[in-house]
Structures are given as structure tokens and as C-alpha cells.
Amino acid sequence: MQDYICTACGTQYPPSEHAPERCVICEDERQFVPVTGQGWTTLEKLSIAHCNAYREHEPGLIGIGTQPTFAIGQRALLIRTPSGNVLWDCISLLDAATVTLITALGGLKAIAISHPHFYTSMEEWARAFDAPLYLNAADRQWIMRPNARIRFWHRETHELAPGITLIRCGGHFAGGSALHWADGAGGRGVLCTADMATVNMDRKSFTFMRSYPNMIPLSTRQVEAIGAALEPFAFDRVYSHFFERVIPTGAKQILRNSVARYVRASHGAYDAD
């Protein structure tokens, strides 16, 4: 029996004798099946040619991402707090070096994941560190490997630990969430948005999409709701879902400006260009 992993999105499926015929995540309109067809691997095979790399973004925050890039290519974030370490988002590869590093830093108090595209091999991570998995209940239908460590949260916010709050944004997925770290950025506050509010390539603006690879936009109502959900929180810095997608300062005003720009564009602001 093998725990097969989709090579397009990184989702791990329950043990089976043969690779699944289809990936439910990739067949959804927010993702895609590659032109070469659905591909599959296992953790054992993935670890042969890949390993995890680490970057300390700031004191108390370490990015973890697989090299060479695998599947969607996101990185996870390890947030170190006095009350325990929190892993934000997940990647498919869990290698021995990562287990050793995180264990040496005190293990994990909890794992929280922004949305189904980053569920990946979350059960492997939860089991390795004996940590609970916090997922928004609105996205429970996208869980490919149900397990007893999952803790669903239902309200608009959930305090995961002192100074660590999960925020339901919606938009990209119904339960799509961000994480607020009050002590980040030297006490000015950090927001980890995954791709609920994606830091653009210019690193001075955000965008908001239902599907990024298929370029399906959100409605103005949904984008305004994302802005409204994040507005009560103090933050100066934002980390999106890739290593380089960071807005180091002034991020809250940039988010406000980006929401307003999206709304203006939806109402025809660029029609004359």
C-alpha cells in the first residue's frame, strides 16, 4: 500500500495498491490537470531528488520550502512563540532534516492551514509532531485523508495561541484563511495571507482570485469582504505563499489600496486605457 501524492497540486491521498485515477483537487476549476496528464509520486520517491530548504524571514519566523520546486511550490511558515511553535500552511515533503530541525526547536503546538490547496501531506506532519490540525469547517469537503488530529474551527476568527489568530477571509475558498501574528515585525504585527490576498510580483500590491492558474476573478463583494475581515487587525508586514512574496512594511495601507483598486477596476476604471 502506498500513500500517493499528486505531482500537480501536492495533495496526498489515502493508502492504496494503485495510484488514484483522478485528483479531485486538480479537477476543480481553481486548479488544473497538466497537459501531460495526472501524475503521482510518494514521499519516499519525492525525497530522493528533493529536500526542504529553510529561510529565517525575521526573528521567530522560518520559511520551509521544497527544492527543487514541487507541485504548486508554496512554502510553510514556522512561527516560534513563548507558548509553543505553530506551523502555518503545509508542504508535501516531510524529510528527516525537517523533523530534526523542528524537534530541536521545540516541536509543534499546532498546525493551521489556509485552504485546501495547501493541505498536501498534513497528516504526515501532524503525526510526526503529534500536533493538532486546525482547518476551517467550511472546507471540510476537500479533505482527502480524514484523521483524528483535525480540529475544525467555525467562527470568523479563532485564537490559536496568545497573539496568534486565524481569520476567515473566504474568496479563494469558502473557508480560506489568514493568520495574524501580533508580535511579528518587531511588535508592529504580521499577517500571513497565503493566497487569500496574494502579494503581487511587484511586492507593493495585492491581488485576489478564485483561481490563479485559470485566472477566474472574485466579485467585488468578495474582495471587499476579505478587506473587511482583515481590517480589525494591526499589521505592518505581510507574508504571502512564496519565499519572495513579502511586503516588509506599510502592508495594511497597501492592502486597503489594493482592495480599492480592484473595486475601481471592476467598475470600469481602466476602460479608457
| Relevant CATH superfamily | Ribonuclease Z/Hydroxyacylglutathione hydrolase-like
- Structural classification: alpha+beta
CATH class: Alpha Beta
The Cα radius of gyration reads: 18 Å
Order of strands in the sheet with most strands: 3-4-5-6-7-8-9
Proportion in β-strands: 25-35%
Q: Give average pLDDT, whole number.
A: 96
CATH topology: Metallo-beta-lactamase, Chain A
The ordered H/E elements are: EHEHEEEEHEHEEEEEEEEEEHEEH
Please mark out the parts with pLDDT under 50 across 5 or more consecutive residues, or reply none. Answer: none
Number of domains: 1
The number of helices is: 6
Key features of this structure:
single chain; 273 residues; alpha+beta; Metallo-beta-lactamase, Chain A; seven-stranded mixed sheet; six-stranded mixed sheet; 28% strand; globular
Overview of this protein structure:
- The protein has one domain: Metallo-beta-lactamase, Chain A (4-Layer Sandwich).
- The longest helix has 16 residues, at 251-266.
- The mean pLDDT is 96.
- The radius of gyration is 18 Å and the shape is globular.
- The chain has helices at residues 24-27, 43-49, 96-104, 122-129, 220-230, 251-266, and strands at 5-6, 40-41, 51-58, 61-67, 75-81, 84-88, 110-112, 133-136, 150-153, 157-161, 164-168, 177-181, 190-194, 198-199, 206-207, 209-211, 216-217, 237-240, 246-247.
- Helix 5 packs antiparallel against helix 6.
- A hairpin with an 8-residue loop joins strand 11 and strand 12 (177-181).
- The chain is an alpha+beta fold and 273 residues long.
- It contains six helices and 19 strands.
- It has a seven-stranded mixed beta sheet with strand order 3-4-5-6-7-8-9. The chain has a six-stranded mixed beta sheet with strand order 10-11-12-13-18-19, covered by helices on one side.
